[in-house]
Amino acid sequence: MTHKQPVLDLSPPVSDEIRKTTCYMCACRCGINVHMKTNADGDMRVAYIEGNRDHPINKGVLCAKGSAGIMQHNAPARLRKPLKRVGERGSGEFEEIEWDEALEIATDWLAPLRADAPEKLAFFTGRDQSQSFTSFWAQNFGTPNYAAHGGFCSVNMAAAGIYTMGGAFWEFGQPDWDHTKLFMLFGVAEDHDSNPIKMGIGKIKARGARVIGVNPIRTGYNAVADDWVGITPGTDGLFILSMIHCLMKAGRMDLDYLARFTDAPVLVNGDPASPEFGLFLRDADGKQQVICRKTGTLTAFDKPGVRPDLSATHVAEGITHRPVFHQMAEKYLSDDYAPEAVAERCGIPATRIRAIAAEIARVAFDEAFELDQEWTDFRGDVHKTMTGRPVSFHAMRGISAHANGFQTCRALHTLQIILGTVEVPGGFRFKPPYPKPATAHPKPHCGVTPDQPLDGPHLGFVQGPEDLALKADGSPVRIDKAFTWENPMSAHGLMHMVISNAHSGDPYKIDTLFMYMANMSWNSSMNTGGVMRMLTDKNDSGDYVIPRIIYSDAYSSEMVAFADLILPDTTYLERHDCISLLDRPICEADAAADAIRWPVVEPDRDVRGFQSVLCDLGARLGLPGFVDDTGAQKYADYADYITSHERRPGIGPLAGFRGEDGNQAGRGAPNPDQLKRYIENGGFFTHHIPDAALYYKPWNTAYQDWAVETGIYDTPQPYLFSLYIEPLRRFQLAAEGHGDRQPPDHLRDRIKHTMSPLPIWYETDQDGNEGFNITALTQRPMAMYHSWGSQNAWLRQIHGHNPLYLPTKLMRKNGLQDGDWARVTSPHGEIKVPVLEMAALNENTVWTWNAIGKRKGAWALDDAAPEATKGFLLNHLIHELLPPKGDGLRWSNSDPITGQAAWFDLKVRIEKTAPLIQSEPVTPNQNSPAPAAPKNLAWKSR
Prior knowledge:
Elements: E1 17-22, E2 31-38, E3 44-51, H1 64-67, H2 69-73, E4 83-85, E5 94-96, H3 99-116, E6 121-125, H4 131-141, E7 146-147, H5 155-165, E8 173-175, E9 182-186, H6 194-206, E10 210-214, H7 220-223, E11 227-229, H8 236-250, H9 255-261, E12 267-269, E13 289-291, E14 298-300, E15 314-316, E16 319-323, H10 324-332, H11 339-346, H12 350-366, E17 369-371, E18 375-376, E19 382-383, E20 386-388, E21 391-395, H13 397-400, H14 405-419, E22 428-430, H15 498-504, E23 512-516, H16 528-536, E24 548-553, E25 565-568, E26 577-579, E27 591-597, H17 610-620, H18 638-644, H19 674-680, E28 684-688, H20 701-710, H21 726-735, H22 745-754, E29 774-779, E30 804-806, H23 808-813, E31 821-825, E32 830-837, E33 845-849, H24 866-869, E34 907-913
Parallel strand pairs: 6-7, 6-23, 9-10, 9-21, 10-11, 23-24, 24-25, 29-33, 30-32
Antiparallel strand pairs: 1-2, 2-3, 4-5, 4-25, 8-22, 12-16, 13-14, 15-16, 17-20, 18-19, 26-27, 27-28, 29-34, 31-32, 31-34
């Protein structure tokens, strides 16, 4: 008798309905399927989250963070109602109030400021992914004091990329995963762009491509690299320039690419006595001049048929003008950049530097290939094929968060360009709406008029001293001192300086600090203890030095305790969001794309999406752009804004399903059913680039025409890559005494030294750090994103606390073993923490996971939670100002060009200490408006 196998349902349904939206657990913005289950009470609840296989970003892949979004949505730490402070600031003592009262309070505080002194409002946001909207609100309020998190995260990378080539890594572009054969990463932590990079690395490794990881720490992507380069922190730029030296000396450059598509042949004034020394030679129309090698004549760079000459010089009015390429050769062929001269500082043997440079050159040139695709460039030249150079790079915060980060990022972009690997098959490719030259972006605006909007966008790209945000007396217009002589090209602002400057009244006092998703009293702040004191400090009259603080967050974070008014936000599954081409879209290199989030569930608390709150608050304040001609509220909520708003005719927050019938892409009238169409399409929209336009985007007429048609440009914008950034030279000229707008004397030498128009490397300013010679770094784990994951019931099991990792050499030197405790000191502070040994680590570097440590009472965590006992922050050791130099000044701990926070220049010393019950310093408990989580946290949809 045969055995009868029982019938088993191996795939029982996990849900009654699937709702497709966009993840918010990191910046990847993956597509997700949210499975909904109907409970006994008839309510639909989230049962399961998986990746959306049809989504262009993740194609169904989803990481631990994305899956754990259920726990983020159900976190006990969620705020439940608007709150008004009733105790001392910092005590965490609040009373619940209704929304009308909360908005009346905010209006009563803000309306007088707008009427009399809009600059008294400082409005700064964290990782909110809606910055085109929040900046629009701030601009209509009229305050010059707006920016987001980029100033303490990655502005060096973004600004260096845009000034050099019109875009950078990550959200600006990506490797050509289908064709690259050698992939090199610099300073990339595993939380950045994690799913696309993991998928890309898997794809290239499957076909035998090599991966080289350059990072002091071997975790994540570097752990799966074929070759790991454990570089000395802060020396990446020197290593890169040494490779450029090797390539130039060997003649391993794409000279045709340099001549056609970059400013390498552009002529530069070479007379040191001239007030235009170092500036480009231009014609009457302002176009850069080159010598055509066919005719030997002087001509504009974009004249049809011109073949720019990399070597020819030109004499005009007795002044010799030399091409940029001459200056590059003089600088980088110097023995100062030879591998033997830089090896010790970089911690990389000279032979290895030469070997890596040789491997890059071999793959770029000896393994070059052709794609059979005709295209036409901006000079009208027809190219029968597209040349592929299969070397690609990726870099992020690790090389950006140093005081030499801007020039380091510039050096990396220059390395790509001389190899001819940008916007070619196998290399780095831009994602729409990039590439855009720096001149296509707005300049920063700072014209403040009471009761009127600001005179233009807050942030932008300066082209010279005339664009700085300075008052007539030379003092800063902005509270963070962005776009001043201290940080001239601070394209993202200086969020890390806002509280310090507001507290000191330098450059002036403010009245209200308004922040969203910016945990400035804890892990998002340098000088954590000092910032908490600044937020609670009172003057001689007993009033708070910073009079009012309004804060919005979805969770009971550390920052909540320091606010006077709390506007509780929703979770990402309860609100509308717009991932827009005007902001931070989800584009890939072969398509323009954007996405939405929408309320797949309704809040079970009295909370509102922050963007909708701003629509209401903007109307109450009568802000132009938020009221109609009758003075009535223009946008009912953020969803209405997303659908109805036009930044310019036919261009709105979303590019998809435009026009009355929803059949237009990029340009078109508002469509009242646009959000519905997005939801039906899985929450996203994709508009593919034609095959002939997929590469050479800055110079390809097919791409330029497509970009105009799509609304990315209003007119074609072809341009040359800037190996030589002329605006930097304009600032140097001012420091040398030329021009009407002059820097203060104490900054002249720094400007002349650091603002080189060709990439340079310099030691970061560590005066006052004598005796502190170990570099201390933080890195964010793949299972976390900022501090959001630290209160997630699933993710906490992966990273419940964080040790300090020491290399073998430092463990032995200090007599330490795994589980011992160490005292770690800097010129600013001291911590005591547990340590673990890690062999795959630069021998003079220590590191830990970022943002694991929590303050007791925050995030609804138990006082005995490991995050609050053994978890810790390196932030206690960092300061927003450098140690005193003896010159009577306190210099910002920032890049001198962009103002980006130099988190990774932290120097410490280490010694063994007695074991402790919990890490130090111990911050007093804060009261939390969110009740502590139950001892046994369980949740399941039935």
